[in-house]
Every structure is written in structure tokens, then in C-alpha cells.
Amino acid sequence: MKKIEFILYSSPIQEEFNDSELYKKATEIGALLKIDQYNNELILSKITDELIIATVNSHIENIEPKDYFEQIIPLDGGLRIEKDNLTIEHQCCSELNDYENWKKILTEKTEYWNEIWIGHPSIFYRYRSNRIEFSDYYDTTPDDKNIKTKIIFEESDFIDGLKVVLSELEDFKNKVYRIIENGNYENKEVMKKSLIK
């Protein structure tokens, strides 16, 4: 079994709020992904406008519109890959904007290990025959010979799956921009680009 999906960290649906209506609705529609006993994330392809609004509002809470450029933190999350009970997912200091790092797999077909920034620690990928290999996590950049393979995909399967989730992420970004445009927000252009590019 394999699964490729973008996930979003959202403060309003963490376990401390498990009695809230928002948490219950996210659970009901299957948008909630439990990471551990304290943390949950939202599956981007299933997220509703209501969940996006709550996430956006939590990112601008207590920030003056004039300070958006300096103080808004980009939306936190990233790609999650699961295959044969093995998982690769975003790490510390990651953000949804890291989708740009995944896009290079579509064009940079190298037989040597190439880093993908997904936060810290990061991972590496390489093409071997008609397959794409992904490494385990590394804090530093080891020599090619010392990198161990964690998950292997057939090239066409992974590329097809990646294109689908990149399209879903683009749809999500458009929803965020639409919600901000139609919402009662100030400094909208800066707000949009600060959350997701």
C-alpha cells in the first residue's frame, strides 16, 4: 500500500481542542491525521473552507496588519509519503512552500543522491533504472556511499502520484487566496504571500 499526500499543521485542531466543533468536523470528514498523542494535521485534499479560515486566523492572531510581512509565519506542513508501513514526512522548520523542493524530482533526474529539504533532518532521492529511491533522514550531508535507501517507488507511479498532490496543493493555495480576498482582512496581498507562495 502507498499513500502520497500533503498535510497541514493547524493549531485549532490539536488534541487540546478535541472537544471543539472544528475538531469534530475535521474528524467526521476524514481530514484529521493523528501524528502522535498531542498533535494532528489536516489532509490538504480534504480540507474545508471552515478549516482553512480557522488555520489562517490562527496564523495572524495578535499580529497587526502593518506587521504581516515581518511576523506572519508560513503555513506549516509538507508532503507525507507512506509505503509498506514506512513513512517519510516533513520535519522541524518545514513549511508548505517546500513543495518547490519536491517539484525538482520532475526535472532533475540524477543517479546521484540529491537532497530534498523537508525541514531538519532532510532526505535524499535518486533515480535508479526505472525507480526512484528515497533515503532515511540525515542531519548532515553524508557521502553518497553512506546514504541508505528507505523507500523505493516505480518511477512512473511516483511521478503520477506527485503530480496529483501538487495539483491538490495548488487548489488549496487558490482556496486560501480566495478566502483572504473575500474575507474581512487587511493588507491582503502581503498576507497571502506570507502564508503560502
Question: Overall mean pLDDT score?
Answer: 96
Please state how the strands of the largest beta sheet are arranged side by side. 2-3-1-4-5
Q: What's the helix-strand series?
A: EHEEHHEEHEEEEHH
Strand content is 15-25%
Specify Rg, calculated over alpha carbons. 18 Å
Uncertain residue ranges: none
Q: Structural class of the helices, strands and pairings?
A: alpha+beta
**What's the quaternary structure here?**
single chain
Q: Helix tally? A: 6
Number of strands: 9
Helix content: 25-40%
Span between termini: 32 Å
Largest sheet: 5 strands, antiparallel
> What is the overall silhouette?
globular
Q: In words, what does this structure look like?
A:
It is a single chain. With 197 residues, the protein is of the alpha+beta class. The protein contains six helices and nine strands, in the order βαββααββαββββαα. Strands 2-3-1-4-5 form a five-stranded antiparallel beta sheet. Strands 6-7-8-9 form a four-stranded antiparallel beta sheet. β6 (114-116) and β7 form a beta hairpin. The longest helix has 28 residues, at 155-182. The protein is globular. The two termini are 32 Å apart.
How do the helices and strands line up, and which of them pair or pack?
Layout: E1 2-9, H1 21-28, E2 32-34, E3 40-43, H2 49-60, H3 68-71, E4 77-83, E5 86-89, H4 99-103, E6 114-116, E7 123-128, E8 131-135, E9 149-154, H5 155-182, H6 188-195
Antiparallel strand pairs: 1-3, 1-4, 2-3, 4-5, 6-7, 7-8, 8-9
What's a quick, concise take on this entry?
The protein has 197 residues and is of the alpha+beta class. The chain has six helices and nine strands; from the N terminus they run E-H-E-E-H-H-E-E-H-E-E-E-E-H-H.
